[in-house]
Every structure is written in C-alpha cells, then in structure tokens.
Design brief:
This protein is an alpha/beta fold. Helices cover 61% and strands 12% of the residues. It has two domains: 4-16 and 277-320, no CATH class; 21-266, 3-Layer(aba) Sandwich (Pyruvate Kinase, Chain: A, domain 1), CATH 3.40.1380.10. Helix 1 (4-59) packs antiparallel against helix 6 (226-320) and helix 4 crosses helix 6.
C-alpha cells in the first residue's frame, strides 16, 4: 500500500496535469471559434464563385477544358495519384490524425503510383518514418490556415497536373460537421473536374435556390470564350475548396482536442476522487496505528510500574519479617 507521502505526490501531479489539460481545452475552444468566424467571413466570395461555375456548366452542355472531363474516369493501375493530406502539427487530439492518415492510405492502396503532398507535422513525420516519399512538404502550419497558403498549395497541384506528373488529384481531410458530431475523415477529387463533381460539393452547406439545377441560367457572354474563362476560374475555385478543407480540418482538430481534454479532465477528477479516498484511509489508518501504539505504550508503562511497586512492597514486607 502506498504511503501518505506517495499519495500526496500523485495527487499534486494529477492536479498540475489537470491545469494543463484545462488550459488546452480553453485555448482550443477559442481557436475553433476564431477559425469558424474567419471561414464565415470568406464564404460569400467562394459561394458566388461556385455559383458562377455552375452557371457556366448550365450555359453550355458541351463545355470543355484542360481540367474538365465529360464522364467519370475508370480506375487504372498505372495512373498516378496526387494526394494532399491535411493533418495536425501535434497529437493530443484523440483519433483525429490517424483517421485522416487511414483515409489517405486507402487512396494510396488504389494505385501503384502516387505523390504525397502533406500539410501538418504529424502526417509528415508519420509518412517519413514509414518510408513514404513526400513530393511536397508544405511548410505552412496546420495551426494557421490562410487563403495565401491555400493558393500556394493549389498552384503546386495545378502545376503538377499541367505537366502530367499526376493524373488525378485528391485531398484527404477532416470535414467538420458540428461541435457535437465533430469531424469525419474523408477525401474528395480535386482534379479533373466534371459537372456533377462540382455540383455535389457543398463545403459551405449552401441552400440558395438560385443555384438549383432546375433554374434556367441567364444569358451571359464570356470573353474571349467560355472555356478560357472557366480554366482561369478553376484555380480560384480549387483555392477556395482547399482553404475550406484547411479550415474544416483545423476546426475538427480543435473540436477533437476539446473532447480529448474534456475526457482527460473528467478522468483526472475521477482519479483524484479515488486517490483522495485512499489517502484518507491511509491517513486514518496511520492515525489509528499511532493511537494504538501510544495506548499500548502507556498500558505497558502502567503494567511495568505496578510490577515494580508490587516487587518493592514485597521486599519491604520481607524486611519487616
């Protein structure tokens, strides 16, 4: 059984750790609110851009472009996949990082050729330690998603696609649902695009009836032509999607860390309760033992004094005789 000193040290250690986890809980809550506010601020621009691309598709049924396809691609073993993986820079977020990595590994298993593009120190260390070649190691921290970093990432992916280095481009990230459901690790194909591919994407949960497929598109003139305008717009569209994925992943990370730190705090409270009870039992046992020892000592002293007195009395009586 542990001594009272050992129990006090353990209780102090748990309380100190709880201070850290509680601070991380509060910090993650603040970061998530800030990230969601930033995303809300940039959402109108990308909503309008997505509506315009949908309008282009509705304007012309036979629209073509270097980033577009008119039918779904069949899987081929010799295709090279470019996979953008978004993880956190650190752990302590439950299964957040591993869920994204498992999703990325599932994509890697579909083809013999792949190129990894990684955001986040956790994913970078994971793939490097297991011998995976990382094509592009983005230095942008996952803790600070910005439009600038999203555009740089998009330009890198578009350049690889233009040069024929990759045949498809996927993004593996965590889609943030809400604070209760958290995030779900998933992947989406960024390139090549088709009409149904764009219309199925709804990163901002837009329900505007103006983008309904049943609504007739207004007559617009695109200069110099529709294909050129669409090709030049794809970069901005993909930047918006990548930025939304970065922010969704960041919000999911903070939400996962909030849940992990909340569970850690609950476990700390439960453990503190058990240790406090054990400490009180040990302390009470020690006090009882001390009282018993004092009582036994006093009793022994009393017995010894009575024996000495009886012996002395007996000697006196013998002398009198």
């Amino acid at each position: 059984m542990a001594t009272t000193k050992e129990l006090k040290n353990r209780i102090k250690s748990i309380k100190d750790t709880k201070k850290i986890t509680n601070a991380m809980y509060l910090i993650s809550s603040t970061k998530m609110r800030k990230a969601k506010a930033e995303m809300e601020g940039t959402r109108p621009y990308f909503d309008a851009l997505r509506k315009e691309i949908r309008r282009m598709f509705r304007t012309s049924e036979g629209i073509t472009g270097k980033y577009l396809i008119d039918r779904e691609l069949a899987n081929k073993d010799d295709e090279c996949y470019g996979i953008l993986v978004i993880t956190a820079d650190k752990g302590l977020a439950g299964a957040y990082n591993m869920n994204v990595i498992k999703d990325a590994l599932e994509l890697i298993g579909r083809t013999k050729n792949h190129k990894l593009y990684v955001v986040g120190e956790y994913g970078r260390q994971y793939f490097m330690s297991r011998g995976y070649n990382i094509e592009e190691d983005f230095e942008y921290t996952a803790q600070n998603p910005t439009l600038y970093s999203a555009r740089k990432i998009t330009n890198t992916l578009l350049e690889a696609f233009d040069k024929g280095q990759i045949d498809r481009c996927y993004i593996s990230y965590t889609d943030f649902k809400n604070s209760f459901a958290g995030g779900v690790a998933t992947h989406m194909r960024l390139l090549p695009l088709n009409k149904s591919h764009i219309e199925e994407r709804d990163m901002s949960h837009d329900n505007d009836p103006d983008v309904s497929a049943n609504k007739e598109a207004a007559s617009f003139t695109y200069e110099p032509n529709l294909e050129t305008v669409l090709n030049s717009t794809v970069s901005s569209y993909l930047s918006g999607f990548v930025y939304a994925a970065l922010v969704n992943s960041y919000c999911s990370e903070q939400n996962a860390r909030i849940a992990a730190m909340s569970a850690a705090n609950d476990n700390a409270d439960e453990l503190l309760g058990k240790l406090s009870l054990e400490y009180n039992h040990v302390r009470q046992g020690a006090i009882t033992q001390e009282i018993t020892e004092i009582s036994s000592g006093a009793r022994a002293q009393k017995t010894s004094a009575e024996q000495r007195s009886a012996k002395k009395k007996k000697l006196i009586e013998e002398d009198i005789k």
